[in-house]
Amino acid sequence: MLERFPGWEVVIGLETHAQLSTVSKIFSAAPTAFGAAPNTQASVVDLALPGTLPVLNRAAVERAIRLGLALGATISPRSIFARKNYFYPDLPKGYQISQYEIPVVQGGSLTVQVVPATGEAYEKTVNLTRAHLEEDAGKSLHEDFAGMTGIDLNRAGTPLLEIVSEPEMRSAAEAVAYARALHSLVVWLGVCDGNMQEGSFRCDANVSVRRVGATAFGTRAEIKNLNSFRFLEEAINYEVRRQIELIEDGGEVVQETRLYDPDRHETRSMRSKEDAHDYRYFPDPDLLPLAIGQAWIDEVAASLPELPQAMQRRLGDAYGLSKQDAATLTASRAYAAYFEAVVGALDGTQAKTAANWVMGELASQLNRAGIEIEAAPVTPQQLAALLRRVADGTISNKIAKEVFQAMWDEPSGAADAADRIIEARGLKQISDSGELEGIIDAVLAANQKSVDEYRAGKEKAFNALVGQAMKATRGKANPQQVNELLKQKLA
């Protein structure tokens, strides 16, 4: 993007709202399940009826601690809930309960792999400012009411953790890499289900531009509620272009909140950007300060799973995998567990081959089917059994893909599914030298032109002869033996 605008630098910070994976809301016992009929999951507390009082959900706090520990952040021993005052139809109380001066999580960092459109991939560490607990508002519905707006308060009171980064990202690619890594981490920890279509994970991007070498930040615009990584990238790139062109044309960027229109691929103004004083924050008198003792922190720390970066290092050390392969295999806990189950079934051997199959054939099938790896019809044990048949020469790698497809299309759950398919379809690799010699003799006799060209120095002719031999055996010949026998006969 900035190649078009030499002399400019972009400054990006993200505020990410992760809906916590609790069964009930942050200050009431109302459920948080997605998809319920409007206003069927709003309790008297969520509706702010007179006389009701909020009660903090311990499970929401625990999830905040989990993420804070995973990010290497400081868990505040004492944090305060505040009232963030603003008036909107889907906010029954006229204020949102949030945290302002003392959040539950302070600091921390996340190291991410950035893969730019051009140039080499690189690592970047993004520092975090804070992560604070708050309640979600309801939802305004405009589409189904001619000239009117409906209000659904099911989301009111849903627990959120707002994770605020420092303004340290310098491109849309870095912002997307950070958002993806954070998304992966909250799902890995079980803090959030990460469902972006349902609004469980959404980002606000603060974007500004400045001349290269400048130290002061430019005026920022905040792009609200970006619920896909593609929209995040598109919105940032559009906003960067808009701001630079505006300044170069003699205009000034105004501080405002903007929305991204994915149909028009542009951001548009929503409202002037508020500052903290506009919300008149003050401590909520209905909620005591949140006290988190060291014993509770230690208890949560002991329950943490192996974190992605630690697993990446372990996979690299144990199996000799590249950083990129290890990062791909740890994109989710389920993905990593599948790979380790395959290698475990192979007694720790063929790790690179297993990684290639999980990242290649398996990933392609999952993508085509639109399902997650947990729902894959081919089990890790079945894939391991298939790879053993390639290793022992029973089938070629090409035939293995045919067998894998059959296992995928007709799932059986049987551990010996690969063997059954190989036997039923007669797919065993031909490794008998005598049988192969007869086939190769016939191929050479039928392709004298290719034979002459090879002997005249044209290497491509040899590949043509190999292809003919494989065709004659319907791909069942051992490729290595075919190559060796052909070379002997053509010598």
UniProtKB/TrEMBL annotation:
One of its GO terms (biological process) is glutaminyl-tRNAGln biosynthesis via transamidation. Keywords: ATP-binding, Ligase, Nucleotide-binding, Protein biosynthesis, Transferase. It catalyses: L-aspartyl-tRNA(Asn) + L-glutamine + ATP + H2O = L-asparaginyl-tRNA(Asn) + L-glutamate + ADP + phosphate + 2 H(+); L-glutamyl-tRNA(Gln) + L-glutamine + ATP + H2O = L-glutaminyl-tRNA(Gln) + L-glutamate + ADP + phosphate + H(+). The keyword Nucleotide-binding applies. Residues 337-490 form the Asn/Gln amidotransferase domain. Its EC number is 6.3.5.-. Pfam families: GatB_N, GatB_Yqey. One of its GO terms (molecular function) is glutaminyl-tRNA synthase (glutamine-hydrolyzing) activity. Heterotrimer of A, B and C subunits. PANTHER family: GLUTAMYL-TRNA GLN AMIDOTRANSFERASE SUBUNIT B MITOCHONDRIAL AND PROKARYOTIC PET112-RELATED (PTHR11659), GLUTAMYL-TRNA(GLN) AMIDOTRANSFERASE SUBUNIT B, MITOCHONDRIAL (PTHR11659:SF0). Allows the formation of correctly charged Asn-tRNA(Asn) or Gln-tRNA(Gln) through the transamidation of misacylated Asp-tRNA(Asn) or Glu-tRNA(Gln) in organisms which lack either or both of asparaginyl-tRNA or glutaminyl-tRNA synthetases. The reaction takes place in the presence of glutamine and ATP through an activated phospho-Asp-tRNA(Asn) or phospho-Glu-tRNA(Gln). Belongs to the GatB/GatE family. GatB subfamily. This is Aspartyl/glutamyl-tRNA(Asn/Gln) amidotransferase subunit B.
